[in-house]
């Protein structure tokens, strides 16, 4: 699917310079008419028409078909499918009356435009880290860890990460990059090696994933979801299978999975919680009565699988207990938590006690870490540290050899470990300058993992009373993150006003969420109505890092700059306000007109607002059409931190 950025021929140098072509600029030609042009850049595919109008199409994996890669323009609400071999004709798509994209073959023929490589130093193979098929920037805008570039398009504000400690100083860490490709790393002899992953399934970029030990292999079994919402199992990093069938509960793309090392736990598209035994294909309902959960939200399960935790839409944190006859009804743990926020749970002895107790940690609506455990009068909690995090931010809790530890990224971007000793909490900084609410994982070892702003895996190891952080990837082997990294923002973009419209036939409830934090904005749109809202735009920037590179002449200072594309700042969840039940009092009403009716929210779908300059002032967004095009009903937690 991915083409080399530079075509190199075995010719004399003069002929090579004349013949080399960078396949990143193309003419779109139609006989008898002026040509248009297509150009691939860090932000996607830019098409300039013959009358000099420009349209930017961002990478959209869900539009891919065999032989073509999809791109989407949120302003015009039109799609492009570009042929992977850069030849022939592209496909053009627009939303039809049914709310789905209708595709047709373009009448324009694609022709590569030659570029003199002497005027483009990036085309020198020695200067081009993307000089292989897997690093074509149109599909992978530098977001391969071995390419040390910027993050790609993702439905998530930050890439989720998973890890597992295997013992004997061995561990695995991984995530799904902006192309939807699994990036997996293994710790060997005090350094991290990238594991070749050979699967063809399209995964959800940035989606949650979990790792389980495989008795028949030295590599973990990995579970995540595809772009279609299928639950996928990856074994030995080279074989995969779809776990669920049509008869099983439907999941949303990017649904969060929890695991106790044997079973998986998930909230399905309808808001029901399930325990899944993937090896046996058994689905056991945990709660199928209340429908009080958003689809795909994070859950937490204790390592023995005895307690399961979730946050209801009402902000209540609840626990389910496994019993001999199944699962108990939910019991309240506490209130004031973000629906869809992250949770983490373990079993460990309380300070001064020898018996184990279940514990759950979460960041409350005030940005404080609460650690809770059962007491004779219900669940009680304590505040961990004085630091603030974004409400619902990811945390990871682990019971280590020298006590209990917890890690998370503060709202100032510091990645911190909190360690309990002698009844008190002490904190140590692991790394700086991460995005607030970056997902993290802590495992025995101890090891800690996160994905940085440039979409690279950071693997930290605690030794000699300090954390050492390594960048994972071939180009980064043996290298630690640059000291005092600078994030230089591009020229700021002004805020714009967006007009949300309802082109459908039913009343809609719209929830606009700022992924940087804060309460969502909700508004109702009747058919044909509109609502205008001012929104911010991120401009992207440059990550500038300083290193001491080890050479035969000793350490040499090196400065590396990594471009960072604009970030998605807003997600939109759309619900239909539908009649779900009618009441007839037949003692006095024999007509077809009900005495009363009940309306409830029914999810239509969710989508992200375009990033950076891709969204413009006065832009009109038909939320009904966009939500139906996303084809992910139930995904109300679409772009949580």
UniProtKB/TrEMBL annotation:
Keyword Signal: yes
Keywords for this protein: Signal
Region (Disordered): 114-154
Composition-biased stretches (Low complexity): 117-148
Annotated signal peptide: 1-23
Listed name of the protein: Uncharacterized protein
Source species: Lignipirellula cremea
């Amino acid at each position: 699917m991915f083409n080399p950025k530079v075509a190199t021929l075995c010719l004399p140098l003069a002929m090579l310079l004349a013949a080399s072509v960078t396949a990143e600029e193309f003419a779109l030609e139609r006989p008898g008419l002026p040509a248009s042009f297509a150009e691939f850049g860090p932000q996607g595919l830019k098409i300039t028409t013959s009358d000099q109008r420009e349209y930017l199409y961002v990478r959209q994996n869900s539009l891919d078909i065999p032989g073509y890669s999809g791109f989407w323009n949120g302003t015009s609400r039109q799609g492009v499918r570009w042929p992977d071999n850069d030849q022939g004709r592209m496909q053009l798509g627009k939303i039809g009356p049914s709310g789905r994209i209708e595709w047709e073959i373009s009448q324009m023929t694609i022709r590569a435009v030659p570029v003199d490589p002497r005027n483009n130093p990036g085309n020198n193979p020695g200067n081009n880290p993307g000089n292989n098929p897997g690093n074509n920037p149109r599909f992978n805008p530098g977001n391969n860890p071995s390419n040390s570039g910027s993050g790609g398009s993702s439905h998530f504000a930050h890439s989720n990460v998973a890890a597992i400690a295997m013992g004997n100083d061995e561990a695995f860490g991984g995530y799904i990059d902006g192309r939807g490709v699994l990036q997996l790393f293994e710790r060997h002899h005090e350094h991290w090696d990238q594991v070749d992953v050979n699967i063809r399934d399209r995964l959800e970029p940035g989606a949650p994933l979990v790792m389980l030990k495989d008795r028949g292999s030295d590599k973990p079994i990995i579970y995540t979801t595809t772009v279609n919402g299928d639950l996928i199992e990856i074994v030995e990093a080279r074989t995969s299978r779809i776990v669920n069938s049509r008869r099983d509960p439907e999941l949303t793309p990017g649904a969060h999975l929890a695991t106790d090392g044997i079973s998986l736990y998930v909230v399905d598209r309808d808001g029901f919680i399930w325990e899944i035994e993937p090896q046996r294909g058994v689905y056991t309902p945990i709660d199928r009565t209340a429908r009080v959960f958003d689809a795909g939200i994070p859950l937490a399960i204790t390592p023995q699988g005895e307690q399961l935790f979730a946050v209801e839409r009402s902000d209540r944190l609840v626990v389910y207990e496994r019993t001999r006859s199944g699962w108990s009804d939910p019991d309240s743990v506490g209130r004031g938590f973000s629906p869809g926020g992250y949770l983490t749970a373990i079993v460990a002895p309380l300070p001064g006690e020898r018996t184990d107790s279940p514990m759950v940690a979460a960041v409350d609506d005030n940005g404080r870490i609460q650690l809770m455990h059962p007491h004779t009068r219900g669940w009680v909690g304590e505040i961990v540290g004085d630091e603030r995090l974004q409400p619902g931010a990811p945390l990871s809790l682990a019971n280590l050899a020298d006590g209990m530890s917890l890690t998370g990224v503060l709202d100032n971007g510091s990645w911190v470990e909190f360690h309990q000793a002698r009844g008190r909490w002490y904190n140590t900084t692991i790394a700086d300058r991460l995005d607030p609410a970056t997902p993290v994982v802590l495992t025995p070892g101890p090891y800690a993992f996160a994905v940085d702003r440039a979409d690279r895996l950071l693997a930290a190891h605690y030794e000699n009373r300090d954390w050492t952080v390594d960048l994972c990837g071939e180009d980064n082997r043996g290298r630690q993150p640059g000291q005092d990294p600078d994030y230089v923002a591009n020229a700021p973009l002004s805020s714009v006003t967006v007009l949300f419209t309802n082109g459908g036939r039913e009343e809609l409830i719209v929830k606009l969420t700022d992924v940087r934090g804060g309460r969502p904005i909700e508004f109702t749109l009747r058919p044909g109505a509109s609502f205008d809202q001012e929104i911010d735009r991120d401009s992207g920037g440059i990550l500038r890092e300083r290193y001491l590179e080890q050479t035969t002449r000793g350490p040499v200072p090196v400065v590396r700059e990594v471009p960072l594309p604009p970030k998605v700042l807003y997600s939109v969840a759309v619900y239909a306000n539908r009649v779900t039940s009618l009441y007839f009092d037949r003692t006095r009403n024999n007509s077809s007109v009900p005495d009363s009716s009940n309306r409830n929210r029914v999810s239509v779908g969710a989508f992200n607002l375009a990033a950076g300059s891709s969204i413009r002032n006065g832009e009109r967004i038909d939320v009904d059409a966009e939500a139906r095009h996303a084809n992910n009903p139930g995904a109300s937690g679409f772009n949580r931190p």
